[in-house]
Description:
Elements: H1 2-18, H2 20-29, H3 35-41, H4 47-72, H5 75-86, H6 90-101, E1 109-112, E2 122-124, E3 130-135, E4 138-143, E5 149-153, E6 158-163, E7 169-175, E8 182-188, E9 195-197, E10 209-210, E11 216-221, E12 224-229, E13 237-240, E14 255-261, E15 264-271, E16 274-281, E17 286-294, E18 300-301, E19 306-313, E20 316-323, E21 331-338, E22 346-347, E23 354-358, E24 361-366, E25 369-377, E26 380-383, E27 388-392, E28 398-402, H7 407-420
Helix pairs in contact: 1-2, 1-3, 1-4, 2-3, 5-6, 6-7
Amino acid sequence: MKFESILKNKIALILFTTCPKTLFYFIKKVKPGNSAAHFCASGSVSTLGRNLIKRNTILILFMITFFDLCKSSHETFIEEIQELVEQEKYEKASEKLKEKLQSPKDRDELLSTDAPDSPRIIEFSNDRLKLVWTEDQKIFFQDLAAGENNSRSLDQLPSNLSLSQNANYALVEYTMQASGGCRYVAISLKDSSLSYEAGAQVSCKSRGSILPDGSKIYYFVDDNLYEEKTVEPRKPVLVLNKEKIVSPFPNLKTRFLMYPSGNSFLIFSGNAGAYNLYWFHPSQKTAEKIDKDILSPILYYGNGENAYYIGGEIGKLHLRRINFSSKGKPAVTKLFTVSRKEINPWKLSKKNEFLSGYSGKVHLWGPAKKSQNLPILCERVLLTGDDRIVCETEPGQLFLSKLDFQPEDWSIWKLYEEVRSK
């Protein structure tokens, strides 16, 4: 109150010298006894008073401007939206709110500002602490824990990407336009020490993989699994016959998708929403079936020691967890039923909660938690091992956002939902 009184006194002195009529209005708003008001109303301003005015005019104007700027960042935006709502311009208000919710905030880490010509490929290491993504003919590597990053150019536009367990190496897939098949090139991501092209043409519908040290790659040809060292001369070696990794529907064209789990691999075998899951150990060159009735062959890594995927059938989906083991085969646990909004589950590090993206919205949910929309809009959503959202927006920006949403964020989200319901 003391500060407010002082400020009013100083404003009164400015008004006296600039706009006497405005001053009379100001005096009416100031309580009797206020020294500045009586001083100005008396009609006498001493030389000392005028010097005081000159010394403090700049300070007062700065403070007034500062107060306006404080308001402009959030409150002015809310007022603008409220005016549009009062004018029943709901579509325009909704677009402005949408733009706000999908824009990175000052505290977010911006990875890329411009949309590439082709869709990005985004992948994680097993612990989700190393992030790799492509932008047209360039690949980016970022170690989120160590703060290291690197990038390198690619031969052509990649069609797919498979990382090693530690994300230090990648098996990059390129489409061969003439034949319709694909070729593989193994590369290092932290430096340029490896660039090796495999000696076989492969199916573009399957997914190969690479060892953590980049020394060997694995891929499928005619439904058989081959191993190849990443040194010349090229010598592909058959390691698994197709009879050992059969699909639930052998008469259909089979897809094989391979994911690293330490120094071993998981192989999804199937098609059309029905897959079997095999555990493949390279040193023993054996594959063991460890699960069936799998709806989606996409693996969502957890903390480096586990991963999640969706089992069941259309209309009855449930979440499954696979725990990796350095001593033996992985263990599969059936968890709980999930909805369509929850079919891309990214596990939070310290809570039994998950984050998923659906229809541009980001959902936080869990077995004991009702699904909650977070105040952010992303066309594609992933979650890092340190619980940061990897958000790819509709305009094409890519950024990292923490889950520490502020009251201002929630107020914008609430207003967005209200406007969209009009």
